[in-house]
Amino acid sequence: MKTIVTVILAVMISTVQVWAGSIGDSVEVRVLSESGSELPFYPVSARYPAKKVYAEAVKGDHYRIVVRNKLNRRVGVVIAVDGRNIVSGQKSWLKNNERMYILEPYERYEYAGWRTGQDRINRFYFSEVPDSYAASFGDQSAMGVIAVAVYPEVQRYELPVQYRSQHSGSGAPAAEAPAPSAASERKRSAAAPAAKAEMMERSAGTGYGRSEYSPSQVVAFEPERRSVENLYIKYEWRSTLCKRGIISCDRPYPKGQNRLWDNGGYAPPPYGRE
Asked: Any idea what DSSP says for residue 136?
């Protein structure tokens, strides 16, 4: 049975850009800050086909998730931030029956916020956990994680030609799930112990930021039953990455650099201001 989903007419990313900090085989995923700088990734061991990395978040920065399809067929991507589907806002399990975005073969798109309507989003920004979108529903079950599940399109030669709507809002509307109730989700969420709550407040989350225009259109898409790849980006403040040993913070020069050779001939920033 065909699943109706939403695809964003996002700004295309230049094909000449280098994907140095990407993750993924069937798709490439990276995270860019408001200034366009790329968040560095630090790999973590994970069972195939899942891939996991850490990334450094800067408090208050708006960011966007950039995805490039590397396959020669359409794919649907279920994207969850802090455990919430970025289209529906509901708790995500990265399943193929969730709202997803569609990428044509080899296309690149960017996703910059929570979808609040057919032509509006509210921007992602790095925040404290209590200020995050997920926490507003009493949901801290997947805080600080950007997750992407990739579902290639089922290839059936007897199916009619798939289509893209030519105008925003044309075609059959996507089936909308009921809006999540903050009160009902809080009731289902167990109260965390004080120590855990304190730890979560020091962690990073994603807020529900400013509203922006972002048109979309409806397409028909039948995803495969299983994802070919699941990607997980765990973003944390620099101090947390230091404490966990993900990045080295006990020396003024990155490991492997020669202090009399690798500074490029320019004065480096003071220690602690990288």
From this structure: G
